[in-house]
Every structure is written in C-alpha cells, then in structure tokens.
Write a structure and sequence with these properties.
Number of strands: 24
Order of helices and strands: HEEEHEEEEEEEEHEEEEEEEEHEEEEE
CATH topology of the largest domain: RNA Polymerase Alpha Subunit, Chain A, domain 2
Structural class: mainly beta
Distance between the termini: 146 Å
Number of domains: 3
Largest sheet: 9 strands, mixed
Length: 303
C-alpha cells in the first residue's frame, strides 16, 4: 500500500502543534533547587527488636527540578526510607543516601541533611500485668464504694525489655459512680500509660464497682468491762466498771445490739496482786466494729 504523506493532514498538524506547545512549556520552565523537610520511614524492623526513644521523624532534602513541579509536591510524595533489616540491638547509625529518598518523576535528589541518623533498638519483651480500674465520683448519700471486679483481671503487654520490666499495671478508662445507689457495670478500653509499651491485642474490660450502704454508728452506754486471764486465787476490781462504746457496721448488724453483747475487756495475763492502769480492748470477732471506747483506760486492782 503506497504511503501518502498528506493523508490525515489535519490530525498531523494538530499533533505537531500540541508537541510544540509542550516543548515550549517545558523549555520555558526554570530548573530550580529547593530544600524541603520530608518524613523518615523505617522499614523491615526485626520482629525481635523495638525502636526506643525518639528517633528522627524527618530530614531535610535538597531537590532539583522544574519550578512548577516542585511547587506541586504534596506531603508524602517525597520520603526518606531507612531499612533496618538485619539490625542488632543497641545504638545504631544509619546513613541516608540520595538513592534512599523516594521522589516523583522529574524531581532529582541532590542532598540529604543530616546524611546519618541515630536509632536506639532494644530486644522486645512480653509480660502479663494486672489491670486497674480508676473510679470517679461519689455514690448517692448513704452509700459507699465497695470492691472493684475487673474481667479480664490481667493483660499481656509487649515492648522494649527495660520499659516492660518497669511497667506495674495496665489501666482502664475511668468508671463513673456519681450518684449510684447500686453496683455500676461498665465496658471500657484497656491501655498502658507508657507509650513505648502496648497491649499484645486491643482489649476492652468489664468493670463492676460495688456500691454498698454506708455503715452506721451507734453509741452504747453501760458496756461492762470484763477481766480476762485473771490469775489463780486473785480477784479483780475494775474502775469504772462500765464504759461507753461507739460501734460501727451495717445497719442491720448494729440495730439490735445490747451493751452486754459488746465484748470489751482488760487483759490480766501475767499480772499479780497490785494496781494497774490498763487499756480497754475489743474482741473483733463480732459482726460490727468499734470506733471509740470512752474511757479507753481503766483502773484495775488485783487482790
């Protein structure tokens, strides 16, 4: 088939015009150099190592290219890549050459400053730590916060060996019990305060904060003071013979208590005839406690 140079002449002229315009545009642009700050990307970190401290997050890169091209650069188009494959623990220096800077077509990397960065690496470690749930607010009047139950009670964390060893606990988001009259259940996130340490797996915990009726106090007068461990053939006289006792406990536990049911005493073990000032004691085996005894010291005569 014979070649006809003037065939499709219109299309050929249009293509020539476009090519000429593109050439004029490119030829008319100034080639410039510009310094920009670019992020440092760490790649191939060994699974048994952790980066510790604050490694450099960016470096300055001198770029050369058309002014319009450099002006159109967006964050992330130029990145300095550092390969940590085969690295050992300790303080290491990593050079960053021009070839390690990723840049778009038409942009040349002239220089990287600094040309070397330092990174601290440490062996990775795992450990199981308890979970603690902070409680905020106060329950309704007449109620007090009780025991806190957390499920799961422990979590596994991972991070640099020295930081993991120092970590005492993981914490949940605070649980608010403001105005509560019964136990509060919440489903909250778990985390660690040290940013260098992390949970092996993201976790949420169920936290139950018991809210109990506040203990009440009741004052009993005429509570007899008993003598314990009185020696053979001795008689004891206690002055005064009765004391006032402030008992404390759950309302139902203290409501019907009589003075004779409160066991307060003086211990005479090993004492012979004579006169003594002895402290009044309380037997803690009861279902209530004693917050005060008045007087708390009595005069005891042994004969």
């Amino acid at each position: 088939m014979a070649y006809h140079p003037f065939r499709h002449l219109g299309l050929k002229i249009i293509a020539l015009v476009i090519a000429s315009l593109l050439w004029l545009t490119v030829a008319g642009e100034h080639v410039v150099e510009r310094i920009i700050r670019v992020p440092v990307e760490l790649r191939n970190i060994p699974s048994e190592l952790e980066v510790v401290g604050d490694p450099p997050e960016s470096v300055d890169v001198r770029l050369r290219g058309a002014s319009a091209t450099l002006s159109r650069l967006t964050p992330g188009e130029v990145i300095a890549v550092v390969d940590l494959n085969g690295t050992r623990p300790g303080s290491r220096l990593f050079p960053i050459s021009k070839e390690q800077v990723r840049s778009p077509f038409g942009v040349d990397v002239v220089q990287v400053v600094p040309g070397t960065i330092g990174i601290e690496l440490e062996k990775s470690s795992r450990r199981i730590v308890p979970v603690v749930a902070p409680v905020e607010g106060d329950p309704a009047p007449g109620f007090v916060p009780g025991p806190v139950t957390i499920e799961p009670a422990t979590v596994e964390v991972i991070g640099p060996e020295t930081r993991v060893r120092k970590l005492a606990q993981a914490v949940t988001e605070p649980v608010d019990i403001t105005g509560a009259r019964e136990s509060v259940r919440d489903f909250v996130n778990v985390g660690v305060i040290d940013s260098a340490v992390r949970l092996v797996e993201p976790l949420r915990a169920t936290v139950i904060v018991s809210v109990l009726p506040a203990p009440v106090e009741r004052q009993l007068t005429g509570v007899p003071v008993r003598a314990r461990n009185l020696g053979h053939a001795l008689r004891a006289r206690v002055t005064p013979e009765t004391v006032t006792v402030q008992i404390r406990g759950r309302r139902e536990a203290v409501a019907g208590v009589t003075p004779d049911e409160v066991d307060v005493f003086v211990d005479l073990v090993g004492l012979g005839a004579g006169r003594y000032n002895l402290r009044v004691q309380f037997d803690p085996s009861h279902a209530f406690g004693v917050s005060a005894i008045r007087p708390d010291v009595v005069d005891v005569t042994l004969r």
